[in-house]
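okkk here we go again. third time trying to get the S-adenosylmethionine bound version out, last two times i messed up the smiles copy paste (missing a bracket lol). double checked this time i swear
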Amino acid sequence: MADGDAVDWRGLNRANWDDRVPVHLASEFYNLDGFRAGATSLRPFEAAEAGDVTSKRLVHLQCHIGLDTLSWARNGAQVTGLDFSKPAIDAARSLAADLDIDASFVAAEAYDAVRALGGGRFDVVYTGTGALVWLPDIPRWAGVVATLLQPGGFLYLVEAHPYAQILDDAQGSRIIRDYFDDQPKIEDCPYTYTDGPALQHTHSVQHQHQLGKIVTALASAGLQIDFLNEHDFDCYPRFQSLERHEGQYRFPVGRPRIPMMFSLRASSPV
Ligand SMILES: C[S@@+](CC[C@H](N)C(=O)[O-])C[C@H]1O[C@@H](n2cnc3c(N)ncnc32)[C@H](O)[C@@H]1O
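finally!!
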Protein backbone atom coordinates (compact mmCIF):
# COMPACT_ATOMS: atom_id res chain seq x y z
CA MET A 1 0.00 0.00 0.00
CA ALA A 2 1.48 3.36 -0.92
CA ASP A 3 -1.22 5.86 -1.75
CA GLY A 4 -3.44 7.04 1.13
CA ASP A 5 -6.06 8.39 -1.28
CA ALA A 6 -6.58 5.00 -2.88
CA VAL A 7 -7.32 3.16 0.35
CA ASP A 8 -10.30 3.04 2.66
CA TRP A 9 -8.70 5.27 5.36
CA ARG A 10 -11.78 5.18 7.56
CA GLY A 11 -12.12 1.38 7.44
CA LEU A 12 -8.42 0.79 8.09
CA ASN A 13 -8.30 3.28 10.95
CA ARG A 14 -11.46 2.00 12.60
CA ALA A 15 -10.23 -1.62 12.55
CA ASN A 16 -6.91 -0.44 13.97
CA TRP A 17 -8.59 1.58 16.75
CA ASP A 18 -11.08 -1.21 17.55
CA ASP A 19 -8.06 -3.45 18.13
CA ARG A 20 -6.39 -0.95 20.42
CA VAL A 21 -9.33 -0.70 22.83
CA PRO A 22 -8.79 -3.94 24.84
CA VAL A 23 -5.04 -3.30 24.87
CA HIS A 24 -5.53 0.22 26.23
CA LEU A 25 -8.11 -0.90 28.80
CA ALA A 26 -5.53 -3.30 30.25
CA SER A 27 -2.56 -0.94 29.92
CA GLU A 28 -0.52 0.76 32.62
CA PHE A 29 -0.55 3.85 30.40
CA TYR A 30 -4.31 4.39 30.83
CA ASN A 31 -4.27 3.09 34.43
CA LEU A 32 -7.96 2.20 34.68
CA ASP A 33 -7.56 1.18 38.33
CA GLY A 34 -6.29 4.65 39.21
CA PHE A 35 -9.09 6.25 37.24
CA ARG A 36 -11.70 4.10 38.97
CA ALA A 37 -10.17 5.14 42.28
CA GLY A 38 -10.78 8.79 41.42
CA ALA A 39 -7.69 9.98 39.51
CA THR A 40 -8.24 12.46 36.68
CA SER A 41 -6.84 11.72 33.23
CA LEU A 42 -6.61 15.43 32.37
CA ARG A 43 -3.27 17.20 32.46
CA PRO A 44 -3.17 19.94 35.14
CA PHE A 45 -2.83 22.72 32.54
CA GLU A 46 -6.00 21.56 30.77
CA ALA A 47 -8.34 22.24 33.68
CA ALA A 48 -6.60 25.58 34.26
CA GLU A 49 -6.77 26.71 30.63
CA ALA A 50 -10.35 25.59 29.99
CA GLY A 51 -11.57 27.35 33.13
CA ASP A 52 -14.60 26.42 35.17
CA VAL A 53 -16.75 23.91 33.26
CA THR A 54 -19.39 23.48 35.93
CA SER A 55 -22.80 22.83 34.31
CA LYS A 56 -21.39 23.52 30.84
CA ARG A 57 -22.53 21.27 28.00
CA LEU A 58 -19.28 19.73 26.76
CA VAL A 59 -18.82 17.42 23.78
CA HIS A 60 -15.58 15.50 23.44
CA LEU A 61 -14.81 14.61 19.83
CA GLN A 62 -12.75 11.40 19.32
CA CYS A 63 -13.20 10.55 22.98
CA HIS A 64 -11.64 7.06 22.79
CA ILE A 65 -12.48 5.04 25.96
CA GLY A 66 -13.91 8.11 27.65
CA LEU A 67 -11.40 8.81 30.43
CA ASP A 68 -10.94 12.48 29.55
CA THR A 69 -14.68 12.86 28.91
CA LEU A 70 -15.49 11.42 32.33
CA SER A 71 -12.78 13.55 33.93
CA TRP A 72 -14.54 16.66 32.58
CA ALA A 73 -17.76 15.26 34.09
CA ARG A 74 -15.99 14.88 37.43
CA ASN A 75 -15.07 18.57 37.07
CA GLY A 76 -18.76 19.42 36.77
CA ALA A 77 -19.49 19.44 33.02
CA GLN A 78 -22.50 17.79 31.37
CA VAL A 79 -20.60 15.55 28.97
CA THR A 80 -21.10 13.76 25.69
CA GLY A 81 -18.32 11.74 24.06
CA LEU A 82 -18.18 10.77 20.40
CA ASP A 83 -15.89 8.28 18.70
CA PHE A 84 -16.15 6.10 15.60
CA SER A 85 -14.92 2.98 17.43
CA LYS A 86 -17.87 1.02 18.83
CA PRO A 87 -15.68 -0.98 21.26
CA ALA A 88 -14.30 2.33 22.58
CA ILE A 89 -17.81 3.73 23.08
CA ASP A 90 -18.97 0.47 24.72
CA ALA A 91 -16.02 0.69 27.12
CA ALA A 92 -16.73 4.36 27.90
CA ARG A 93 -20.42 3.64 28.58
CA SER A 94 -19.58 0.71 30.80
CA LEU A 95 -17.03 2.75 32.79
CA ALA A 96 -19.52 5.61 33.24
CA ALA A 97 -22.15 3.13 34.49
CA ASP A 98 -19.72 1.43 36.89
CA LEU A 99 -18.62 4.78 38.32
CA ASP A 100 -22.14 6.21 38.32
CA ILE A 101 -21.06 9.23 36.27
CA ASP A 102 -23.77 10.90 34.19
CA ALA A 103 -22.48 10.93 30.58
CA SER A 104 -23.67 10.19 27.04
CA PHE A 105 -21.55 8.39 24.47
CA VAL A 106 -22.24 8.24 20.74
CA ALA A 107 -20.57 5.97 18.18
CA ALA A 108 -20.10 8.11 15.06
CA GLU A 109 -17.64 9.49 12.57
CA ALA A 110 -16.22 12.89 13.54
CA TYR A 111 -17.34 14.49 10.27
CA ASP A 112 -20.87 13.24 10.97
CA ALA A 113 -20.97 14.65 14.51
CA VAL A 114 -23.57 17.36 13.88
CA ARG A 115 -26.13 14.84 12.61
CA ALA A 116 -25.14 12.12 15.10
CA LEU A 117 -25.59 14.56 18.01
CA GLY A 118 -29.06 15.48 16.81
CA GLY A 119 -28.20 19.06 15.94
CA GLY A 120 -27.43 19.84 19.61
CA ARG A 121 -25.26 22.83 20.44
CA PHE A 122 -22.56 22.88 23.11
CA ASP A 123 -20.77 25.37 25.37
CA VAL A 124 -17.47 23.53 24.93
CA VAL A 125 -16.08 21.29 22.20
CA TYR A 126 -13.01 19.46 23.52
CA THR A 127 -10.50 17.46 21.52
CA GLY A 128 -7.46 15.86 23.17
CA THR A 129 -4.06 14.67 22.07
CA GLY A 130 -3.61 12.38 19.10
CA ALA A 131 -6.92 13.16 17.42
CA LEU A 132 -6.27 15.38 14.39
CA VAL A 133 -3.75 13.06 12.70
CA TRP A 134 -6.67 10.72 11.97
CA LEU A 135 -8.65 13.34 10.04
CA PRO A 136 -7.80 14.06 6.41
CA ASP A 137 -9.61 17.40 6.05
CA ILE A 138 -8.98 20.04 8.74
CA PRO A 139 -11.17 22.82 7.25
CA ARG A 140 -14.07 20.35 7.21
CA TRP A 141 -13.36 19.41 10.84
CA ALA A 142 -13.24 23.10 11.81
CA GLY A 143 -16.64 23.58 10.16
CA VAL A 144 -18.07 20.73 12.26
CA VAL A 145 -16.62 22.28 15.44
CA ALA A 146 -18.05 25.73 14.61
CA THR A 147 -21.49 24.22 13.93
CA LEU A 148 -21.47 22.31 17.24
CA LEU A 149 -20.78 25.47 19.26
CA GLN A 150 -23.51 27.67 20.52
CA PRO A 151 -22.83 31.44 20.35
CA GLY A 152 -20.25 32.31 23.01
CA GLY A 153 -19.11 28.70 23.30
CA PHE A 154 -15.52 27.63 22.68
CA LEU A 155 -13.31 24.90 21.28
CA TYR A 156 -10.57 23.73 23.63
CA LEU A 157 -8.01 21.76 21.63
CA VAL A 158 -4.93 20.06 23.07
CA GLU A 159 -2.66 18.37 20.56
CA ALA A 160 0.78 17.07 19.77
CA HIS A 161 2.81 19.89 18.26
CA PRO A 162 3.40 19.18 14.56
CA TYR A 163 7.02 20.33 14.88
CA ALA A 164 7.79 17.50 17.34
CA GLN A 165 6.35 15.02 14.87
CA ILE A 166 9.02 15.67 12.24
CA LEU A 167 11.96 14.78 14.54
CA ASP A 168 13.69 11.42 15.04
CA ASP A 169 12.18 9.19 17.71
CA ALA A 170 15.42 8.50 19.61
CA GLN A 171 16.80 11.93 20.47
CA GLY A 172 14.31 14.34 18.97
CA SER A 173 17.25 16.27 17.61
CA ARG A 174 17.24 15.54 13.85
CA ILE A 175 14.62 16.57 11.34
CA ILE A 176 13.71 13.40 9.46
CA ARG A 177 10.28 14.31 8.08
CA ASP A 178 9.08 17.20 5.93
CA TYR A 179 7.01 19.64 7.99
CA PHE A 180 5.05 20.71 4.92
CA ASP A 181 4.32 17.20 3.62
CA ASP A 182 0.59 16.83 4.19
CA GLN A 183 0.13 13.73 2.05
CA PRO A 184 -1.60 10.82 3.85
CA LYS A 185 0.82 8.30 5.34
CA ILE A 186 0.08 4.60 5.49
CA GLU A 187 1.59 3.26 8.68
CA ASP A 188 2.11 -0.45 9.41
CA CYS A 189 2.81 -0.82 13.12
CA PRO A 190 2.08 -3.94 15.16
CA TYR A 191 1.95 -2.03 18.44
CA THR A 192 -0.02 0.87 19.84
CA TYR A 193 1.57 3.67 21.90
CA THR A 194 0.84 1.99 25.23
CA ASP A 195 2.28 -1.11 26.79
CA GLY A 196 0.52 -4.32 25.74
CA PRO A 197 0.38 -7.05 23.11
CA ALA A 198 0.52 -6.75 19.31
CA LEU A 199 -2.50 -5.72 17.25
CA GLN A 200 -4.17 -7.73 14.49
CA HIS A 201 -5.06 -4.78 12.26
CA THR A 202 -1.74 -3.06 11.95
CA HIS A 203 -2.33 -0.61 9.08
CA SER A 204 -3.55 2.93 9.55
CA VAL A 205 -3.68 6.15 7.54
CA GLN A 206 -2.47 9.33 9.24
CA HIS A 207 -2.16 12.98 8.27
CA GLN A 208 0.22 15.60 9.54
CA HIS A 209 -1.35 19.05 9.78
CA GLN A 210 0.70 22.22 10.01
CA LEU A 211 -0.05 24.45 12.97
CA GLY A 212 -0.83 27.40 10.68
CA LYS A 213 -3.37 25.34 8.74
CA ILE A 214 -5.18 24.32 11.92
CA VAL A 215 -5.41 27.90 13.18
CA THR A 216 -6.39 29.27 9.77
CA ALA A 217 -9.10 26.61 9.37
CA LEU A 218 -10.65 27.60 12.71
CA ALA A 219 -10.50 31.32 11.89
CA SER A 220 -12.01 30.65 8.46
CA ALA A 221 -14.85 28.72 10.13
CA GLY A 222 -15.72 31.93 12.00
CA LEU A 223 -14.06 31.23 15.35
CA GLN A 224 -11.94 33.75 17.21
CA ILE A 225 -8.59 32.49 18.53
CA ASP A 226 -8.39 33.32 22.26
CA PHE A 227 -4.97 31.77 22.85
CA LEU A 228 -2.47 29.38 21.33
CA ASN A 229 0.01 28.02 23.89
CA GLU A 230 3.04 25.93 22.98
CA HIS A 231 4.35 23.52 25.64
CA ASP A 232 7.93 22.32 26.19
CA PHE A 233 6.78 18.90 27.44
CA ASP A 234 4.80 15.92 26.24
CA CYS A 235 2.35 13.66 28.02
CA TYR A 236 4.03 10.50 26.74
CA PRO A 237 7.67 9.56 26.03
CA ARG A 238 7.69 10.63 22.36
CA PHE A 239 11.52 10.63 22.28
CA GLN A 240 13.71 8.14 24.14
CA SER A 241 15.75 11.07 25.46
CA LEU A 242 12.81 12.50 27.44
CA GLU A 243 12.81 12.36 31.23
CA ARG A 244 9.68 12.11 33.34
CA HIS A 245 8.97 14.85 35.86
CA GLU A 246 5.63 14.77 37.68
CA GLY A 247 3.74 13.15 34.81
CA GLN A 248 5.33 15.31 32.10
CA TYR A 249 8.08 14.22 29.73
CA ARG A 250 10.85 16.79 29.15
CA PHE A 251 14.34 17.02 27.71
CA PRO A 252 17.12 16.78 30.33
CA VAL A 253 17.85 20.10 32.05
CA GLY A 254 20.15 22.27 29.94
CA ARG A 255 19.14 20.88 26.57
CA PRO A 256 17.52 23.48 24.26
CA ARG A 257 13.77 23.04 24.33
CA ILE A 258 11.29 22.59 21.51
CA PRO A 259 7.48 22.70 21.45
CA MET A 260 6.00 19.21 21.94
CA MET A 261 2.35 20.03 22.55
CA PHE A 262 0.06 22.96 21.93
CA SER A 263 -3.27 24.03 23.35
CA LEU A 264 -5.71 26.42 21.81
CA ARG A 265 -9.01 28.02 22.67
CA ALA A 266 -11.20 29.42 19.92
CA SER A 267 -14.57 31.05 20.60
CA SER A 268 -17.78 31.27 18.67
CA PRO A 269 -18.99 34.88 18.34
CA VAL A 270 -21.86 35.84 20.67
C1 LIG B 1 -5.36 8.95 20.24
S1 LIG B 1 -7.09 8.67 20.45
C2 LIG B 1 -7.59 10.05 21.35
C3 LIG B 1 -7.01 9.79 22.61
C4 LIG B 1 -7.48 10.60 23.74
N1 LIG B 1 -6.86 11.90 23.71
C5 LIG B 1 -7.05 9.77 24.91
O1 LIG B 1 -5.87 9.80 25.29
O2 LIG B 1 -7.85 8.98 25.37
C6 LIG B 1 -7.82 8.98 18.90
C7 LIG B 1 -9.30 8.55 18.86
O3 LIG B 1 -9.82 9.05 17.62
C8 LIG B 1 -10.79 8.11 17.17
N2 LIG B 1 -10.97 8.37 15.74
C9 LIG B 1 -10.05 8.28 14.76
N3 LIG B 1 -10.58 8.66 13.59
C10 LIG B 1 -11.86 9.03 13.84
C11 LIG B 1 -12.92 9.53 13.04
N4 LIG B 1 -12.75 9.72 11.73
N5 LIG B 1 -14.11 9.81 13.61
C12 LIG B 1 -14.29 9.59 14.95
N6 LIG B 1 -13.33 9.11 15.77
C13 LIG B 1 -12.12 8.84 15.22
C14 LIG B 1 -10.20 6.77 17.50
O4 LIG B 1 -11.17 5.75 17.57
C15 LIG B 1 -9.53 7.06 18.85
O5 LIG B 1 -10.39 6.69 19.90
